[in-house]
Amino acid sequence: MAERAAHDAGRALKRLAAAALLAAAAAAHADSTGYCSPGRPLDASQKDVVLRFGAAVKAELERAGSGVALISRSGLDLSRFSMRYSHAGLSLRDSADSRWAVRQLYYACDDQRPRVFDQGISAFLLGANDAALGYVSIVFLPPEAAAAVERRARDDRAALAVLADRYSANAYPFALAYQNCNQWVAELMASAWGDAATRAEAQAWLQRAGYVPTAFEVGPMIAASLFVPFLHRDDHPEDDLAAGRFKVSMPASLETFVRQRWPEATRVELCHDGRQVVVKRGWGSIAEGCRPSDGDEATPLP
Question: What pTM was computed for the model?
Answer without folding.
Answer: 0.88
